[in-house]
Design a protein that fits this description.
The structure holds 2 protein chains of 2 kinds.
Chain A: H1 3-9, H2 17-35, H3 59-63
Chain B: E1 16-17, H1 19-27, H2 29-38, E2 40-42, H3 45-67, H4 72-86, E3 88-89, E4 92-93, H5 103-117, E5 124-125, E6 135-142, E7 154-165, E8 168-177, H6 193-205, E9 210-220, E10 225-233, H7 236-259, H8 278-281, H9 288-295, E11 296-298
Parallel strand pairs in B: 1-7, 8-9
Antiparallel strand pairs in B: 2-11, 3-4, 5-7, 6-7, 7-8, 9-10
Helix pairs in contact in B: 1-2, 3-4, 3-5, 4-5
The chains are: A mainly alpha, B alpha+beta.
């Protein structure tokens, strides 16, 4: 989870002034990127549940007999 | 506190109008009936209203803080904090199922707007003689005629802000949209019911010679929020004409309500991006209720409800 996502998940009553500054800075940076031509700079991904590490798959093993 | 009904007691005659309900009436009597009298709203509309309301709240708080002498950066932080609190309930953040109207795009839109227009905005909030900033002003304007003896028609609404701009006074109205902000976007406001009403109201109630309305539009997309500022002007005689027309519209409303029949304006269905009742009105009358109940929910509209 990124810092900004963590801030959004925090109870607003527990947010400090520094947290709010960090949030404002984050969006200002995104705006600068947008103004420089990145049209998706401000995209916000929906938070997804972390289901832990993905199982590793050995392609050679799976395709070995083919 | 519960607001009084906006209809004359025991009738369908509406005496208190805002620009939304008046707009429905002008667009199509059937749309007006469904929306203003029965109160049908499309399911899912709530998220747009919530997002728009919060966006206004954030900017209003910023304006108030600035008028109190708080600097730009701290006023932005206050607005962010307010919105985060407003979108937090039962220990959880607001989870919107809309792709562009979310908690994150709300904060992004407010920060980006205020960084573009906040600090060095040539439009300055008017401050009344009592020291209060002209921000989020609710108005109720009694007209000198009414639908019954002792009950005048009332025009009501909310002005986002009254500003001084380039040696003129304007109402400022902030809008959020998903539409691309081409110059033609602003054409829809001239002529326009809401902008004429706001110009009239601010002239009468605040005794200010208002030139028109500044529209600050925000296009909220997945990856960005883009802003554009447009102007719409109204002369004294245009406002007078609008008031004369209003008399005819109110008479129409009284006539429809007397018969309780609300004719469909079938030349309006495809305008304004398509009426949301189009799918209902296109069905045979005997099955329309089924479609209304499946796609809409009832949420009464009362312009006298305080914000």
């Amino acid at each position: 989870m990124s810092d900004i996502q963590a801030l959004f998940q925090k109870d607003p009553l527990e947010l400090t002034r520094e947290d709010l500054k960090e949030m404002a800075m984050y969006y200002r940076e995104k705006r600068n990127q947008f103004n420089l031509g990145d049209k998706q700079a401000g995209a916000t991904k929906r938070l997804k549940k972390d289901n832990g590490p993905k199982p590793s798959i050995n392609i050679d093993e799976l395709l070995g007999d083919l | 506190m519960t607001a009084p009904s906006n209809f004359l007691n025991g009738t369908l005659v509406q005496y208190a109008f805002d620009s939304t309900s008046l707009g429905w009436l002008k667009e199509c009597p059937r749309k007006y009936y469904y929306s203003a009298i029965v109160g049908w709203r499309p399911k899912g509309e709530a998220v747009n209203l919530k997002f728009g309301g919060l966006y206004h709240e954030g900017l209003e708080l910023y304006d108030r803080q600035r008028a109190r002498g708080v600097d730009h950066d701290n006023a932005i932080l206050d607005a962010i904090h307010h919105l985060l609190k407003e979108t937090w309930s039962d220990g959880k953040p607001w989870q919107s199922d809309h792709n562009t109207k979310t908690r994150e795009t709300l904060i992004r839109s407010v920060v980006w707007y205020l960084d573009q227009f906040g600090q060095d905005d040539p439009a300055k909030t008017v401050v009344f003689p009592d020291g209060k900033p002209a921000v989020e002003l609710s108005f109720q304007l009694n007209l000198d005629w009414g639908p019954s003896t002792g009950q005048p028609y009332v025009l009501c609404g909310h002005l986002d802000r009254v500003v001084e701009y380039s040696s003129g006074t304007y109402v400022m109205d902030r809008k959020t949209t998903s539409t691309t902000l081409a110059p033609s976007f602003f054409d829809q406001f001239d002529p326009d019911n809401q902008m004429s009403l706001y110009t009239l109201a601010s002239k009468v109630i605040y005794s200010t010679p208002v030139k028109g309305v500044i529209i600050d539009a925000a296009q909220v997309a997945v990856g960005f929020t883009r802003f554009s500022r447009g102007f719409t002007y109204r002369t004294e005689t245009q406002i007078e004409e609008w008031l004369v027309d209003l008399r005819y519209w109110f008479e129409q409303q009284a006539r429809y309500s007397e018969k309780n029949y609300w004719p469909m304006n079938d030349k309006s269905c495809h305008k304004y991006g398509g009426c949301h009742f189009r799918k209902v009105c296109s069905k045979s009358p005997e099955v329309r209720d089924i479609f209304l109940k499946s796609d809409f929910e009832i949420s009464p509209w009362n312009p006298l409800e305080p914000r």
